[in-house]
Amino acid sequence: MSGHDGRGKAALAALTGASLIGLAPIAIRLSEVGPNATNLWRFLFALPILAVWAAMSRPIPSRTQTLWLVLAGFLFGLEISLWAVALNLTTITNATLLVNLTPVFAALFGWLWLKERLSPAILAGGAVALAGAVTLALARAQTGGGPADAPEQGWLGDSLSLFGALFYAGYLMIVRAMGKDVSVGAVMFWATLAAACVAAVMSFSLGETMLPQTWFGWALVIGLGVLVQVGGQGLIAYGVGRLPIVVSTVLLWMQPLVAAALSWMLFGEALSATALFGAALVLAGIFAVQRSRQ
Questions:
Q1: Which of 50, 65, 212, 230 could form a disulfide bond with 61, CB atoms 3.0-4.6 angstroms apart?
Q2: Dihedral Cα 231, 233, 239, 245, nearest 10 deg
Q3: How far apart are alpha carbons 84 and 95 in whole angstroms?
């Protein structure tokens, strides 16, 4: 296989995976059970497949490495749980774009933990992305966008999404620090297992509805587990690992774009001119940060 063909397949994998991940917020909004319960089912249906993947992957992580992977999965579970709650408090576009500010926080963690240099371009990109996040929040406040039963709590949903990005950045830092010593299968299995524990605690603590009532509800959570958690995350892991970081970053923007388009069509969450401007700032800032960290 030529390098050009291999890179083309990797790009297609990343693009397809990002598109599948973009279905997650739509499914959570349509689900017959609570947002954390929806994620719990997503993880439970994915775990048997991921267990086989992890068992077939080499090298097998040591006990210490496994504990680090569990901690990483705990942070991943917190990110997913906060995002799931945010989806019912603000617009899908806001929640998805703000949680994708992870590269900005990852750059900060890289500076504090891994002693990476923060170049002027990274600082400028982070400032632009955060300005876009504020613009998105202001646009949502002006239009009252978001779920009909939570019109006054959009600011809380935006804040939870930002905290979700912070936790996901911590997850990525741990995975990055161990990336050369553990397999992708092990990372995905332990992260999903720990995230399932977080989702279970959250869903039961909040008294969420746990069991879907119709075949559509069950199909939704099964599809999340197989298509999004295994298929989407797996394709992204394959594609991102074989592409330049700048290329993969642009391709992964398909996630918030798919989520925004579907939320517009299904829930009438149209983007105002101010929201579009804020979204553009967020994406531009993320691109600048990722490109500078290459």
A1: 65
A2: 160
A3: 9
Q: What is the token pair recorded at 56?
A: 């077939």
Burial class (CB in 10 A: 0-12, 13-18, 19+), 141: middle
Report d(CA 136, CA 278) in Å as an integer. 5
pLDDT tens figures, 78-134: 988 888 888 877 777 777 777 777 666 766 766 776 666 667 776 787 778 777 767
**Residue 161 and residue 99 in contact, taking contact as beta carbons nearer than 8 Å:** yes
Ranges of residues in the chain with a pLDDT under 70 are: 1-6, 102-104, 106-107, 109-110, 113-118, 122, 133, 136-155, 176, 179, 240-254, 270-271, 289-294
d(CA 148, CA 108): 36
Residues 6+ away with beta carbon under 8 Å from 180: none
User: Hey, where are the domains in the chain?
Assistant: 3-292
Joined together, the tokens standing for residue 134 give 């504020």
d(CA 130, CA 124): 10
- Note the pLDDT tens digit of each residue in 132-164: 767 766 665 555 555 544 445 566 777 888 888
Are 288 and 123 in contact by the 8 Å Cβ rule? The answer is no
* pTM for the structure as a whole: 0.74
